[in-house]
Amino acid sequence: MERDEAFRGALERKMRAPLSAFRELARGLPDDPALVDVRGLLLSGRCRVLRDTPESTDFIVAASDSPLVCIVGQPLMSLIQLAVTGDDELEVIASGDSIEHVSQALPDWLGDEVRVLTLPDPEAELPAAPAGGGGEVRVRLLSPEDRDCLGPVEDELRGELEQVLEQGSPLAASFVDEIPASFCYPVFETERWWDVSVDTLEPFRRRGLASLAFRRMLTYENQRGRSPVWAAVESNAGSLGLATKLGFEAVDGLALFRRRG
């Protein structure tokens, strides 16, 4: 009972430390493509860190604005179990020797293999992008002042994109006849990498609009010295197919755990 209370105390401590404390933890991890999520979270400060003791090098990073939990090393299984209590939508990411450890801590969860891909040369000229089909197509970066243009976007995605703009993160959009149709933005950024997110509205899919939005964001990030990381579960043939068309190659793997059912 006392040990459980200690774990709960660790969970309830939201580590109200300055951003420098999170960045110090990030500096202790290699800036590798497979760690872009956890390092990006720490560098952004949009998270809390859970660990058994303040000195532990095995810890849990939980996003404060999304259902994402990243496992670093092999924190106590009881702490992992308590960290995922109460939210059915949580997604837990593990890499390397953390994967088997998390699978044992969460035996009732479903684990999926995640392929991590990068561009061999982010500044090389990409294959010609499709013209985008019918209608006038243009691509540009959005700013917080462009929030009203997201009106045609479905509620869940619009909320996600508005959050990106509110955080001051870059967001590229492909427009068809003034309608925002496809979007690309970095979920997380580290010193060397940016984590690619691409979404296209259903009526505009398979027209090359996602490629156009990605190219615009790639130019932006190249200028800042960051290379793209593409991650997708092995079952997501559409995402992996688009990554392959854009020239991405697999370099590593992760595991994504979600509740069954």
Question: Any key phrases for this structure?
Answer:
globular, 11 strands, Aminopeptidase, alpha+beta, 261 residues, 2 domains, single chain
Architecture overview:
It is a single chain. The chain has 261 residues and is an alpha+beta fold. It folds into two domains: 2-107; 137-253, Gcn5-related N-acetyltransferase (GNAT) (Aminopeptidase), CATH 3.40.630. The protein has helices at 2-12, 19-27, 36-44, 77-83, 98-105, 155-166, 209-222, 237-245, and strands at 47-50, 59-63, 68-72, 91-94, 109-118, 137-142, 171-176, 179-189, 193-200, 227-233, 249-259. It has an eleven-stranded mixed beta sheet, sandwiched between helices. Strand 7 and strand 8 form a beta hairpin. Residues 1-8 and 10-15 have low confidence and may be disordered.
Entry summary:
The chain is built from eight helices and eleven strands. It is of the alpha+beta class and 261 residues long. It has two domains: 106 residues; 117 residues, Aminopeptidase, CATH 3.40.630.30.
Blueprint of the fold:
Blueprint: H1 2-12, H2 19-27, H3 36-44, E1 47-50, E2 59-63, E3 68-72, H4 77-83, E4 91-94, H5 98-105, E5 109-118, E6 137-142, H6 155-166, E7 171-176, E8 179-189, E9 193-200, H7 209-222, E10 227-233, H8 237-245, E11 249-259
Parallel strand pairs: 3-4, 9-10
Antiparallel strand pairs: 1-2, 2-3, 4-11, 5-10, 5-11, 6-7, 7-8, 8-9
Helix pairs in contact: 1-4, 2-3, 4-5
